Amino acid sequence: IMAFAPHHRRDGGGLYSFSSRPRAVESRPRYREPPAARSMQRAHGNIMYDRRVVRGNTYGRHTGRPDPAETRRQPTVRQRSPAQRAAREQLRGSSPEALLGRKHVHMQTERYLEELSEVLVSENAECQTDAFLDRPASPLFVPAKSGKDVATQIEQGDLFDFDVEVQPVLEVLVGKVMEQSLLEVMEEEELASLKAQQRTFEELRNSRLAEVQRLQEQERRHSQERERRIAQQKEVLRKEKETAEKIAARAITQQYLAGLQPAVFSSLRGHGFFYDPVERDVETNFLPWLMAEVNDTLRKRSTARQTLDNLIQDVCRKRVEAFMELEAQQHTDDT
After folding, report:
1. CA distance to 141, 190, 207, per residue, from 200 (Å)
2. Quick check: 78 and 125 in contact, CB under 8 A?
3. SS3 of 121, please?
4. What is the mean pLDDT of the chain?
5. Which of 127, 125, 69, 16 is CA-nearest to residue 5?
6. What share of the chain is helix, strand, coil (3-state, %, to 5)?
7. For residue 17, pLDDT beyond 90
8. Distance between the two ends of the chain, CA-based, in angstroms?
9. Looking at the predicted structure, is the pLDDT value of residue 325 above 80?
10. Which contiguous run of DSSP H or E holds residue 2?
């Protein structure tokens, strides 16, 4: 249905004619919106903060947010021409190519699967409707039943009878609980008796340990006293022995030193402590110098002889080599 703008003018003949081009009627929802949505749409605000108001120069390119009304007036995807749909599909990003040995398959992601059929190209047509109606409640989607119904036959006595079947289980549980309880009580009594015996044993052990410590201390004091008396007696005996040794040494010394002085002088004279200075000077100074000079003279003579022998050997070796070369040359000339 085409609608015309109310703007008109009057010709000279008294007739009215429309001056604006016809345009399509805006598509409106079929049902009324909830009160909350209507109140939000009718909310008023400061126009200075509205994004649709252009700021700056009025002759530049408008880059603001498009008007929702203009957006609604744009044709939908189904109303676009095939050329526009092809261009939009070319600009839309596609999935990467499948790997070797694989291929891309379209899959459904909805909760209830439906059979896909070929979608036919259809066109939408609009018409002027009456005032908004209340939107009815959306029915619950129930998928169509598929398959066959099956059933299971249950004979008498096949199901579980709780009153009958639970009795042996309950008897086992109660018996096990009673047995465990008796065992725990007996264990507690046994532990109590063991603790009493342990306390009695500890008291007896502590009393015996105290008596043993007292006896050990008494024995230690006796041992120390005995060792001290023995040490004192040993010290007395050592002093007596030392005194007797000193007396015997004094007597032996006096007896030995009686003829010691003549023996010492004779021994010193025999060992050379009393000597002639001239003879000692000759032995310590002259004879070593003389032997050193003789050794030096002999070493020089030996060096001279060795040098002469080396010279004679070198001359002989050179003459032998010259003779061998001469013979080799004569042999070469003869051949």
Report:
1. 84, 15, 11
2. no
3. coil
4. 77
5. 16
6. 60, 5, 40
7. no
8. 144
9. yes
10. strand 2-3
Give CA separation, 17 vs 2, 3, 22, in Å.
Answer: 16, 14, 12
Residue 132's region, left for phi above 0, alpha for psi from -120 to 50, else beta, is beta
CB 283 within 8 A of CB 272: no
Give the pLDDT of residue 211. 93
Listing DSSP states for 270-335 in one string gives HTTSS--HHHHHIIIIIHHHHHHHHHHHHHHHHHHHHHHHHHHHHHHHHHHHHHHHHHHHHHHHH-
Q: What is the pLDDT of residues 272-287, one digit of tens each?
A: 777 777 877 888 888 8
d(CA 324, CA 329): 9
What confidence tier does 38 reach under pLDDT thresholds 50, 70, 90?
Answer: low
Judge whether residue 183 has pLDDT over 90: yes
Instruction: Spell out the residues 6+ positions from residue 53 whose beta carbon is closer than 8 angstroms to its own.
Output: 47, 64
Angle at 239 between CA 238 and CA 243, to 5 degrees: 115
222 contact partners, CB below 8 Å, separation of at least 6: none
Cα-only R_g, the chain = 71
Per-residue model confidence as pLDDT tens digits over 84-105: 777 777 666 667 787 788 887 7
